[in-house]
Design brief:
With 310 residues, the chain is of the alpha/beta class. 39% of the residues lie in helices and 13% in strands. The protein has helices spanning 29-34, 76-85, 89-93, 103-111, 114-120, 133-141, 148-155, 163-167, 179-183, 195-207, 218-225, 228-248, 286-294, 302-307; strands at 2-8, 46-47, 50-51, 54-55, 59-64, 125-127, 211-216, 254-259, 278-283. The longest helix is centred in the last third of the chain and has 21 residues, at 228-248.
Length: 310
C-alpha cells in the first residue's frame, strides 16, 4: 500500500478563534468538506472525556502530542527526527532542539529513518520537493546546513530533486505552484502550476512510489511572522492543492497523511512555537485508514504506523 505524507511545518490544533488562528479564519472549502463541515481546530477532536478521533467518510483526524514529555516548546529538528525515526528524540536527549539538527540529532537521522527503511527493503521512496541550484551550492560550500527532512533523504542515498526534475514534472516547488521560484528566486523560465494542478501532480507522483513525502515549510514561516493575511492566503492555496490531490488520489491504493512537527501557525498571538497538539489527518479507504489512525498518539507513532503498511 502506498503512502503520501504531506508535512505542514508548524501547524498545531488551536482554538476556534479567527482573531488569532488563521485555520479558523481562512476559506478552506475542500478541507472543511473533508471534515464534514468542521475546521482544522482543537474542538474537532475534543469530546467530553478528552480527545477523540474525528471520523468522516474519507478521513480520520487524530491529535498528536508534539511535546513528548519534555519540558519547553517543541522544536523542528527534534520533532521532525521523532516523526522520521519513531524514536522519542527529545526525551532521549533531554531537550527540544532546532531549527537545524545538531550533531546528536543528525546521528539519529543517519542511523535510521523512514527513507532508509524503505530503501533497504527495496521499496521506492522520495522527497517530492525540488531544490534550486543555489541550495546545493550553499550546502556544498558549508554556508547552509541540511534541515532534518532532506538530511534523512540524503542519508538514505536518495538524491534530492533538482530544477531539472521540477521542469520535467517530477517534483514540486516548496510553495506548490513554483510562483516563488519566478518571483523570489528570479528564475523566469520556471513552469508555474495552478494550485489544483499541483495537487494532481502530488497524486500522480505518489502513485508511482511506495512512500512519498512533501515538505511545506511556508506555514511555519507565516506563524513566526504573525502574518494573518499571508497565512490565510497560504492556507487558501493549500486548500486548492488539497482539492486537486483528493480528486486524483485512489483511496483503495494508498493513504495520505497530513501532519506536522509542532504548533505555531495556529496561534498568531505569539511568534514562538506552541505546545499545542498537532493534527494527523489520515485520508483513504476505511479498512486501512482506521487501524492506521488507531496506532497514533504522538509524533513517535507515525514512522512505525507507516512501516506497518509494508
Amino acid at each position: 500500500m502506498r503512502l503520501l505524507l504531506l508535512f505542514l511545518d508548524g501547524v498545531g490544533l488551536g482554538a476556534n478563534d479567527p482573531d488569532r488562528n488563521p485555520l479558523a479564519r481562512a476559506e478552506m472549502p475542500n478541507l472543511t468538506a473533508l471534515l464534514d463541515g468542521r475546521r482544522l481546530v482543537a474542538e474537532a477532536v475534543t469530546a467530553v472525556h478528552g480527545r477523540q478521533p474525528l471520523e468522516t467518510a474519507r478521513a480520520t483526524l487524530v491529535a498528536l502530542d508534539a511535546c513528548l514529555g519534555v519540558a519547553g516548546l517543541p522544536q523542528s529538528a527534534t520533532g521532525q527526527a521523532a516523526l522520521l525515526t519513531g524514536r522519542n528524540v527529545p526525551a532521549e536527549l533531554g531537550y527540544h532542539y532546532g531549527p537545524k539538527p545538531n550533531a546528536a540529532v543528525r546521528a539519529y537521522l543517519h542511523n535510521g529513518n523512514l527513507f532508509r527503511a524503505f530503501t533497504y527493503a527495496g521499496r521506492k521512496a522520495a522527497l517530492l520537493n525540488a531544490y534550486p541550484q543555489a541550495y546545493f551550492e550553499a550546502i556544498e560550500s558549508g554556508r547552509r546546513l541540511y534541515s532534518a527532512i532532506p538530511l534523512a533523504v540524503v542519508s538514505a542515498g536518495i538524491p534530492l530533486k533538482t530544477t531539472a526534475d521540477l521542469h520535467a514534472g517530477e517534483a514540486l516547488a516548496a510553495d506548490f505552484t513554483a510562483q516563488g521560484w519566478r518571483e523570489r528566486l528570479r528564475l523566469p523560465d520556471t513552469p508555474v502550476l495552478a494550485a489544483v494542478e499541483a495537487g494532481a501532480r502530488l497524486a500522480a507522483l505518489g502513485a508511482g512510489l511506495d512512500f512519498s513525502f512533501f515538505e511545506y515549510w511556508l506555514s511555519d514561516y507565516a506563524g513566526h511572522y504573525r502574518d494573518m493575511e499571508g497565512s490565510c492566503r497560504l492556507l487558501a492555496t493549500f486548500d486548492q492543492v488539497l482539492g486537486g490531490l483528493l480528486a486524483s488520489w485512489d483511496d483503495e491504493a494508498g493513504l495520505i497523511v497530513i501532519t506536522s512537527d509542532h504548533g505555531n501557525m495556529e496561534d498568531l498571538s505569539t511568534r514562538n512555537h506552541t505546545p499545542a497538539p498537532v493534527p494527523a489527518l489520515v485520508i483513504g479507504a476505511a479498512a486501512a485508514r482506521r487501524p492506521f489512525a488507531g496506532r497514533l498518539r504522538d509524533l513517535t507513532d507515525i514512522a512505525p504506523a507507516i512501516l506497518s503498511l509494508t
